[in-house]
Amino acid sequence: MDSNRSFEVYGIVPASGFSRRMGRQKLLLSWKNKPLLEHVLRTANNSSLNGVLTVIPADDEERKKLALQTNSKVIYNKNPEKGIGFSLALGMMHIPKTADAVMIFLGDQPELKQDDIQIVLNRFNEIYSESNDQSKIIVQTHYINGKIGHPILFSKPFFSELSLLDGDQGGNHIIHSNIQYLTRVNSIYRYPPDIDTIKDYDCLLNRQ
Question: At what angle do helices 61-69 and 36-45 cross, to 10 degrees?
Answer without folding.
Answer: 30
